[in-house]
Amino acid sequence: MKPKVRLGLIGYGAIGKHIEAAGLENIELVSVLVKRPRNDGRLTHDPERFFAHEFDAVAECAGHDAVRAHGQRVLDHGADLLVTSVGAFTDDALFDRLLAAAKANGRRLILPSAGIGALDILSGTAVGGLDTVTVTVRKDPSAWKGTIAETLCDLDALTAPKVVFDGPVREGARLYPQNVNISAAAAIAGIGLDRTRVVIVADPTITTHIVELEARGAFGHFWFKEDVAVSDENRKTGKLVAMAMVKSVRQLASTLVVAA
C-alpha cells in the first residue's frame, strides 16, 4: 500500500480550509501553522511546535511574509514547498536562497498554477523563445481596498475601469502582494519578472475576477482568458485558487498526474 503524503499547511484561510475539507486520498494533514492562537489541536501559532512534525510537503497559503519567514526552514526540514504567494519572489535573494535550499536538501520548490491557467503552455513556449508576455488582472474595486490603489483613485466612486498599474511584474507584484501573485507565476514560467508586463485594473463594471494572459514568440501567439467567481472568504482572491491548490496537493500522492 502506498504510504500517505504527510502534509503541513502554513495559513488556514480561503485556501487552507479548502485543502483540509477536500479529504484527499493518501494525504495526511499533520499540522497547520497560523498567525494567532486557535482553540483547535490541529492548529498552532508556534513555529517550533509546527516544525516538530515530519512533513513530506508543506503548502504555503499565507502571504509573502510567510514565504520569507518559513520557506527555507521547510526545505531544510526535508519537505517539498508549495508556494502560492509567488509574488514574494520579486525578491531575487529570497528566490535564490530557497532554490539553493531545495537543491541542498534534495527537495522541490513547487509553484502551483493556483489562480492562473495556461502556465503549462507558457513554460513550453519559453523553451523555443518568447518575445512578449502580458498579464492583465481585472477585479472589482472592493478587491483593491487596502492596497496602494486607494492612493491613486477613489475606489468607491469609480464608474469606469481604472488602470492602477501598468509595468513590469517585479514592481506590480511587490505593490499588490495579495492580488497579483498569478503575474509572478507567469513571469517565472516565461521571460522573467522584469520583461513580463502586468496591467492591473479596478473595474466597477464586473463582479468577478478576469485574468488575461497573452504571449508571442517563436511558437506563434496565444491568448488565454479566465473569468472566475470571487472567493466567499476573501474578495482579493478567486474560488479557482483554492480549487487549483487542492488539485496540486492531490497530485503529490496521485498515481496519475495530468498537466504537471
Concise synopsis of the structure shown:
With 260 residues, this protein is an alpha/beta fold. The protein contains 8 helices and 11 strands. It has helices at residues 16-21, 47-51, 64-76, 92-105, 119-128, 169-175, 181-189, 239-251; strands at 5-10, 27-33, 43-44, 57-60, 80-83, 109-110, 130-139, 162-168, 197-202, 209-217, 220-228.
What's the structural blueprint in terms of helices and strands?
Elements: E1 5-10, H1 16-21, E2 27-33, E3 43-44, H2 47-51, E4 57-60, H3 64-76, E5 80-83, H4 92-105, E6 109-110, H5 119-128, E7 130-139, E8 162-168, H6 169-175, H7 181-189, E9 197-202, E10 209-217, E11 220-228, H8 239-251
Parallel strand pairs: 1-2, 1-4, 2-3, 4-5, 5-6, 7-9
Antiparallel strand pairs: 7-10, 8-9, 10-11
How does this structure look, described?
This protein has helices at 16-21, 47-51, 64-76, 92-105, 119-128, 169-175, 181-189, 239-251, and strands at residues 5-10, 27-33, 43-44, 57-60, 80-83, 109-110, 130-139, 162-168, 197-202, 209-217, 220-228. It has 260 residues and is of the alpha/beta class. The chain has two domains: 5-113 and 242-251, 3-Layer(aba) Sandwich (Rossmann fold), CATH 3.40.50; 119-237, Dihydrodipicolinate Reductase, domain 2 (2-Layer Sandwich), CATH 3.30.360.10. The strands form two sheets. A six-stranded parallel beta sheet has the order 3-2-1-4-5-6. Strands 8-9-7-10-11 form a five-stranded mixed beta sheet. β10 (209-217) and β11 (220-228) form a beta hairpin. The radius of gyration is 18 Å and the shape is globular. The mean pLDDT is 93.
